[in-house]
Amino acid sequence: MIENLIAPSRHSCSKASSDNFPSEWSDVFHRNSYVFSSNHVLSLIPKLTSTSHKGSHGRIGIFGGSEKYTGAPYYAASAALNCGVDLVTVFCAKEACLPIKCYSPELMVQGVYSVEELDGFEREGAEISGISDEDNSKLLEARKKTITAVTDTFPSLHALCIGPGLGRHRLLFPAVSSIIQKAIECNLPLILDADALYMLSLDEHKDLLLELIKYENVVMTPNLMEFKRLKSALQTDNNGENDPLYVNGIIVQKGHNDIITQGTMKLECREQGGLKRSGGIGDVLAGTICAFMAWNKILQNKTNENRILATWTACCTVKKATFKAFEHKRRSMSARHVLEEVPIAVQEMEDDLSRRQK
Q1: Facing residues of 285 across strands?
Q2: With contact defined as beta carbons under 8 Å apart, do 322 and 274 qualify?
């Protein structure tokens, strides 16, 4: 049940002793009262070798970006690149392509639907009683093209993040739903954030939500309001209790302390972030988690313990990056400053734990 996701875990982690870890990133584990061997944590990140090729360290997709929201997919995609992923493709509205391409030459950007076209169908009353067969046929064909454009890339992707800047166009949601279902069929790691979570809270997508909660390879990253919507969506007629199947996927309940749960396992990120809560930091987190999930697939770390540890480590990475960005910029801190600190946080973690091995 959802309530169990934030209850004390029956799968407990050991308390850290004072001599377990020697330096800054090691202290993260100490402060959070968890003991993981340096080998275990380093196993979450693929090694850099002379035999690596483009794509060896991750190929991910970000499905988001609309005519109104172009920054969110950029932050998510750039966070993944700054973690160390090799290739990122942003699937977005055609109206968002040019701005996102101008933000970064490193991103591959593909317009997979048109907001203007969907608005036209909506004005004509698409999917409403009385719509002509011709218009409905055009809508279904446009939807099919969107689904195909994204799902055709699945064999080459290591993870897919859906939601940053997606928007809430009701005629887009059926395509998003089909893409999520196809990802489940392909066992592709999914990170669902922002408007993807809003979509799942709607009655017409409850069946998909019930399917997702059985899927071990999904990470949902709700804030407080999004968590409440998901909780409400999963209420059953059984005395108002929550759906008991809500146990397999990973939930990151974002807040002052991020709470990461999967079934009976629970970790809490108690790292201090910055005192400024800027827009876009949630997108940075989604992209960072996507990078760690891609690495999890590459390294074939298939156990739930590895998945939840990777997610928790990503949360700690972003908290540390936010703290350092705030130290430097104070009130002027924004998500782009957090982005600059992400690669430093990842490198410090790798260096600290590598020294521990010696």
Answers
A1: none
A2: yes
**What ranges make up the beta strands (E) of 159-244?**
159-162, 190-192, 218-220
Given the structure tokens 């298939």, which residue do they identify?
A: 302
Q: b or e along 50-76 (b: 16 or more beta carbons within 10 Å of the residue's beta carbon)?
A: eeeeeeebbbbbbbbbbbebbbbbbbb
Interatomic CA distance for residues 234 and 159, integer angstroms: 26
Q: Enter the pTM of the model.
A: 0.88
Using a 10 angstrom Cβ sphere, with 0-12 exposed, 13-18 middle and 19 or more buried, the burial of residue 114 is middle
pLDDT (tens digit per residue) in 224-281: 999 999 989 887 544 444 444 456 899 999 999 999 998 888 899 988 899 998 999 9
| Residue among 29, 31, 111 nearest 70 (CA) | 111
Q: DSSP letter string over 33-93?
A: T----HHHHHTTSPPP-TT--TTTT-EEEEE---SS--HHHHHHHHHHHHHT-SEEEEEEE
Tokens of 292: 């760690």
> What are the structure tokens assigned to 162, written together?
């859906």
**Residue 131's pLDDT band (cuts 50, 70, 90):** low
Residue 49 makes CB contacts below 8 A (sequence gap 6+) with none
Give residue for tokens 């409400």: 232
